[in-house]
Design brief:
globular; 6-stranded parallel β-sheet; single chain; 13 helices; 6-stranded mixed β-sheet; alpha/beta
Length: 377
């Protein structure tokens, strides 16, 4: 560890960004431009953007100016031969394109950290929320060994759906302190940026709530089990147990609301333990929760994985979504639930911890744990 800290004073890990012209790709670039370890070396996008300088290939939609480091870079097609000097590939590709492209990059022995949904259900691919289940990185060597041909450096690791991410962070803190959760009801109020750009048509979302987001409820209900579950091993082969040792039922209702950034969720949970914890015990457990990403020194990990509000009307997207640059979650209104045990409100920045920030912290963890092996540049 001391050797790592010594060399981390200068950027020594080259990274590439796929889908660099899109909303998630732009967020990757914004976060990576001043990263203490990672240096952007290659940008990939669709064939129509390839060959153009980045400013001419993209319609920049971030709230901060385009970083100087990418202004002179030429966009490439998303093909491994243009990314050979990269230690890490961050993928902000849409699901329509991500599956084949990310698979090709893995086959080329490149480490892919994906924001897309395509490989989340793959039994050999970790689905990691870095403030929750970084222990699932232990599945990477098996993924490499099972690939044909076996891989030395390449793998795919996915982060979760943006709404799932905001839910599982407080759930993990509660299970760590009070044991298994048996049931969870969650209703989401999801920002329009979660639909990408140009996103939801204005006439559909202004003065309106849309009570349906295709596939979102199923993703939340299934992904939560993979993330909060453990890993079993039988006959030398590891598998995700999907929380099967203590079955967890999740019921999600997902809505699109006229907010730009920040997914708000109302959550009710029932614990297996009897009697259940009090609201004050829950507040204290949420506040005290410190994930390994923080204790190991990941530079993008938030100081507070969970910030607990005491005010009765917080969190709110407009006021709280950019706290800690959106890298943690905010929780408020912790109280008893007359149907289950405890209910509360969660706010997660869907374009930060719900997307690019998660992938970046996942990569930081992979470096610290020796899963990513940087080339000698």
């Amino acid at each position: 560890m001391s050797n790592f800290l010594r060399i981390s004073d200068e950027k020594f890990i080259n990274v590439g960004v796929l889908g660099a012209t899109g909303t998630v790709g732009q967020r990757f670039i914004t976060l990576l431009a001043n990263h203490p370890w990672f240096a952007i070396r290659a940008l990939g996008a669709s064939p129509r953007s390839a060959g153009k300088p980045y400013p001419k290939a993209t319609n920049w939609k971030q709230t901060t100016p385009m970083p100087p480091i990418v202004r002179e870079m030429i966009v490439h097609e998303c093909k491994p031969e243009f990314f050979r000097d990269c230690d890490i590939i961050f993928s902000g590709l849409d699901a329509d394109a991500a599956g084949e492209i990310e698979g090709a990059f893995r086959a080329a022995d490149l480490a892919v950290f994906s924001n897309a949904k395509n490989y989340r259900r793959d039994p050999s691919v970790p689905l990691i929320v870095p403030l929750v289940n970084d222990s699932h990185l232990s599945m990477v060597p098996q993924q490499q060994a099972l690939h044909s041909p076996p891989l030395q450096r390449g793998f795919i690791l996915t982060n979760a759906n943006c709404s799932t991410t905001g839910l599982v962070i407080p759930l993990r803190a509660l299970e760590k302190s009070f044991g298994p959760i048996e049931a969870c009801f969650v209703t989401t109020m999801q920002a329009i940026s979660g639909a990408g750009y140009p996103g939801v048509p204005g006439l559909d979302i202004v003065d309106n709530v849309v009570p349906y987001i295709g596939g979102e409820e199923e993703k939340m209900e299934w992904e939560t089990l993979k993330i909060l579950g453990g890993i079993t091993e039988e006959d030398g082969k590891k598998a995700f147990d999907m929380h099967s040792r203590h079955p967890l039922r999740v019921s999600a209702s997902c809505n699109r609301v006229p907010v730009i950034d920040g997914h708000t969720m109302t959550v009710s949970v029932r614990f297996a333990r009897r009697p259940p914890p009090s609201p004050q015990q829950v507040r204290e457990a949420l506040t005290a929760y410190t994930p390994e990403a923080r204790s190991m020194g990941c530079p993008s990990a938030p100081v507070h994985a969970i910030f607990v509000h005491e005010e009765p009307d917080r969190p709110q997207p407009r006021l709280d979504r950019y706290y800690q640059d959106g890298a943690g979650v905010s929780v408020g209104r912790v109280r008893q639930c007359p149907v289950l045990d405890i209910k509360f409100v969660v706010l997660a920045n869907n374009v930060s911890i719900g997307a690019a920030t998660s992938s970046i912290i996942n990569a930081e963890l992979a470096v610290l744990k020796g899963i990513v092996k940087p080339l000698a540049h």
